[in-house]
Sequence to fold (121 residues):
Amino acid sequence: MGFCPAAGPRIPLRGESIPPGVPEPDVNRDLIGQLLWNYFTQNPIGEAVGECDCEIAPDEVRRPDLSVFFNDHIRQIDPEKIPAPLAPNIAIEVVSRSESAVELRREIRDYLRAAAKRSVS
Fold:
């Protein structure tokens, strides 16, 4: 889990403790993260990380609630560089009651656009 730089607090996925002053992570994100960690422990094809800054386009950074990177993408990430220079293979956003449908559609569009550009390159 240490391969992905983040500018802010990360959601604990492997039983990590939450630093003092950081709000309790959303239960749904934590549960999904734990399920993904369990999967990748038995199927080492990638990793799931929480709150990882990802550059999905030039000068456009997103921080999905959870990001899944397959091994070929992990090799492209320098843990000393923020943000990660690519979009995750899978971006997971846990929808909150305060999030608008318009905002959610925009985020989905941005992630799909980033994935399409990556597959064409």
In short: Confidence is low (pLDDT under 50) at residues 6-19. The two ends are 27 Å apart (CA to CA).
